[in-house]
Each structure stands twice: as structure tokens, then as C-alpha cells.
Amino acid sequence: MPSKDSQHKQTRNTAHDSEVTNESVQSNDLFQSDVCEACFGTGMQIIEGKGARPCECLNLRARRRLLDAARIPRRYAGCSMESFRSGSNRSQKLAFEYACRLVLDYPAVDRGLLFIGPVGVGKTHLAVAILKGLAEKGVPCLFSEFGSLLKQIQDSYNPVSQTSEMKVLAPVYQAEVLVLDELGATVPTDWVRDTMYQIINKRYNDKKLTVFTTNYPDEARAGGGRGEDSRGNLVSGIRRSSKLSDIRTREQLLPTLEERIGTRLRSRLYEMCVDVVIDGEDYRKRKQPESVESIRA
After folding, report:
1. C-alpha distances in angstroms, 171 versus 7, 140, 176, 208, 245?
2. What pLDDT, on a 0 to 100 scale, did the predictor assign at position 60?
3. 275, 95 in Cβ contact below 8 A?
4. pLDDT in tens, 166-179
5. pLDDT below 50 — which residues of the chain?
């Protein structure tokens, strides 16, 4: 008769074997789910009576790799051209048209876009949608939030860091298309401005396409109106809307983009990008559930 110890070991081994088996089954299921039903993972699809051709799954895998390499935050995973909603907002419709046109015309595009507007009007949504649209065309892209990028650079100065400033900046320099989100959001110390200038000036000299977003209004915005200025920049304020009056009042209190990033850098952005000014209400506030007070009422 087996001892209690041997029974316990046998039970434990059986449980372990069961776990291993379950893990293997799950791994096999995952593997099988990734195998293309058209080419069975070979990359070549057999067409009856015609021979073989490269399978479409190769392009799909390539696009997935490009999207992974773009480092789009999970928060914006659902942002696309299809999911963008402008409603009756004229400036958002025009911004959407500019974004679509960039994707359609690329690579025959000389200038990127500078989305300017208050929080929650869809600037980052459109910037991410541009990256996804270009990735579908096989274009290597990169998303970078400026504050996070500066933090990574600062962390690289730590003696125990496993990276260097050049390793952090290399993908930003080399990306065929770069989205630089929240330009000017970081307090503009001398180091911040020097680093910002180094990054943007490098892409300027290399003629790399860059898309920027910023909450800080430009000087041209004070004139209001709608249409394009002498540089071909989109200026589409909706000055008659009373709902946006509070937003504009707050924006007038903000420093200008030039004050945040400096005159030299702002001058380069005029040549690098088309200014796309977006007005509107913060969509995040519209998404908020009813307040406790309204529920109680």
C-alpha cells in the first residue's frame, strides 16, 4: 500500500502534468489561430489552375509589425479616421479633410500638420489616425508624447541607466513619419528648449515629415476668420458660436506657441507644417456620466 507521501507526490505530479498539458493546448490554440487558412503559414497561396502567389497575410503581418513599432499608446488604440466624429463642427471637418488628404497623397507630401486647439477637440485622435492610415500603406511611423520623451532623455543621464540619450532619440530622428504630441506642454526651461530645438531641427534638416499637436494658440489665431492665410495654413475659428466663448477666453490667457517653444523653432514649423486650428468643446466632458446632483434630482 503506497504511503501518504507517495500519494501526495503522485497527486502533485498529476496536477503539474495537467497544468503543462493545458498550457500546451492553449499555446497550440494560439499558434493555430495565427496560421493563415489560405496559405497555412507558408506565405504562398495556391490558386487552382493558376499556380502560386504571395499570400495577402504577408501584408497583414507587415502592417501589424508597423503598428507595433509605431508605439501608439493603448489609450488611442480605437482612434482612426472611421471613428472620428466631427458633428456640425466646421473646424473639425476641415481638420479631418486635411488628415485624410495627407494619408491619401503620401509620399507626395512636402509638409506635415500642426494641429492647434484646446483639449478634447480631436487633435491626438487625428494624429494617430494619420499614423494608422500610413501604416496601412506600409509607411514606418512613430508616436511620441513630448513630455514622456523628455523624461526618457533625462532618465538616460542616470549612471545606472541601461540606455543612452542617442538610443532614446534615434527612433525619433529616423522615423519616416513622426507624431509629436503635446508640443509646448512642458515648462520651457533652457534645457527643454534646447532639446526641443535639437529634435525638431534634426527632422527639419532631414526633411522628415512630422505631425504635431499643441494646446497653445498661435498668433495668427487672434485674427479669427476662416480659410487659409498667405502661407496656406488652415485658420478655421468659429467666432460666432456662443458655446465656445469661454474656451476662447481661457485660450487668450494662455501664452502663444511661439512663447512656449521659441522664435527659431516656431519659424521652422511654418516651413515644416500646415497649421490646422481646431475649435470645439471638450469631448471628454460630453462623455461624462450624469453628476451625482442630477441623479439625486
Report:
1. 57, 11, 9, 12, 41
2. 76
3. no
4. 999 999 999 999 99
5. 9, 11-12, 14-33, 220-242, 251, 292-295, 297
All 3 cell numbers of residue 144? 511620441
Taking alpha carbons only, the member of 126, 69, 138, 77 closest to residue 102 is: 126
pLDDT of residue 61: 76
Closest-CA residue to 142 (of 207, 69, 208, 202): 69
Chain centroid to CA 183: 13
CA 139/CA 210 separation, integer angstroms: 13
Pairing of strands 177-181, 141-145: parallel
Q: In this structure, is the dihedral angle defined by the CA atoms of residues 65, 76, 132 and 130, taken in order, positive or negative?
A: negative
Quote the cell numbers at residue 125: 485622435
Grid cell locating 262: 521659441
Question: What pLDDT, on the 0 to 100 scale, is given for residue 232?
Answer: 44
Cα–Cα distances in angstroms (integers) from residue 22 to residues 9, 18, 27, in the given order: 20, 6, 9
> Which residues is 275 bridged to in the sheet?
114
Locate 140 and state its grid cell.
Answer: 514606418
- CA distances 58 to 63, 95, 176, 268, Å, are 9, 33, 21, 39
Burial 179-202 (b: 16+ CB within 10 A, else e): bbbbbbbbeeeeebbebbbebbee
> What is the pLDDT, as a whole number, of residue 170?
97
pLDDT (tens digit per residue) in 246-278: 555 554 567 899 999 999 999 999 999 999 999
pTM of the model: 0.71
